[in-house]
Amino acid sequence: MQDFFNSLDAPDPVLGSLDRRVLLELHKALFPDCTDEEVTQATRRELIDLIRNSRREPGRVSGYEGQGYPLRRRHPQVINPGLFAGSNDHAVYWCRQQNPLASAAALARGDEDFEWSLRHPLKPGDLIVTALESSPPLIVSLEVIEEDENEEITYRNLAIFSDPISVIDAQHLIGAQLPRRSQYLKQPLAEKLLESMGALIADPRPIFITAGPCDAVQSAQANEVLSVLATLQKGSPWEQLECRICDREILDEPEAHLPHVDQHGLRWEIQEHVDEAVLMCSDCHDMAHQPTLQQLRNYARPACPKCGERNPRQIIWGMPAFIPDPDDFVVAGCVLPMGPMAQWECRACSSRYLVADAGELAYPELMVHHE
Questions:
Q1: Per-residue confidence (pLDDT) for residue 235, from 0 to 100
Q2: Between the chain's N and C termini, which has fewer beta carbons within 10 Å?
Q3: What is the domain range of residue 336?
Q4: Which residue has the higher pLDDT, 369 or 116?
Q5: 75-98, pLDDT tens digit by residue?
Q6: Average pLDDT score over residue span 139-167
Q7: Residue 31 belongs to a domain
Q8: Which residues pair with residue 208 across a beta bridge?
Q9: Are 271 and 144 within one domain?
Q10: Do residues 211 and 319 both lie within one domain?
Q11: Are 16 and 48 part of one and the same domain?
């Protein structure tokens, strides 16, 4: 399990902070013969791996030749925009959910016992458009109300929009505000809403968000929409939600872990954040934010007497009998200094120091940390 956590680190400290547009521009400069179709569905990490594995010099990066932002959508054209044709004869109920993550999990599980915000009596043949009060708000499903042979009301799901449809974009196309509460829409507004949804499926628009800090106790509000989208994209509908770490079914609300240490504060297109996110149960998400045994050992090392930074690198004198990891060790060479030998090198200020008894002589060129 710890190996999986370790594999979640950012693939490159520089490339890892770039958004999709810049990565595609750099990839195009490195591989000018590569067609756009070959990289359309590549994730950010796949693009970064392609760039890092290249042995060619990038040279000058030209501008991206395509129009608009280079979107990556997981399920392009799976939802047929023609789904909305002929829907204008149906009344449309606008269902606005205030608990976005629980609602997304219920949609993904096909939970028939979940209580939706349906405040009015519904009739067979009516359509239900569900929007989640996330930030930004998303339209996530389209259902039709039916009546079974026992004259009981049932709900048949027509589509789950795992590729995001922004309520804000729909309002922009409609030219009017959509209600903040669940209610039937007037026919002109209902027709415009369905038309806008079809248009946004046929020609999706980028949704930019700034990720907040990832925390297992209280996740940032900006990250809730990432958990929502990751939940909707977890696989086929009505399959059980499984934690990527322990492979157990997630019985409560799933949580999206952001393994990229610098992802907090980066403004990316929403799918790029979701591609980096890892869907976990709450227990594994809590473990992901706990220090590893090696990290605890590192931080137990003596602090730098100059800047106070912990987690120094250990200095090896002479010829090491093993291949030292440069992230943990510094090979100082075979020429030994006069007097005490430094034991540690600070990662922050590069000061070298040793741990010594209080009465030991301190050399001017060597900083001493007294026990």
A1: 61
A2: C
A3: 294-370
A4: 116
A5: 665 666 566 665 566 799 999 999
A6: 86
A7: yes
A8: 269
A9: yes
A10: no
A11: yes
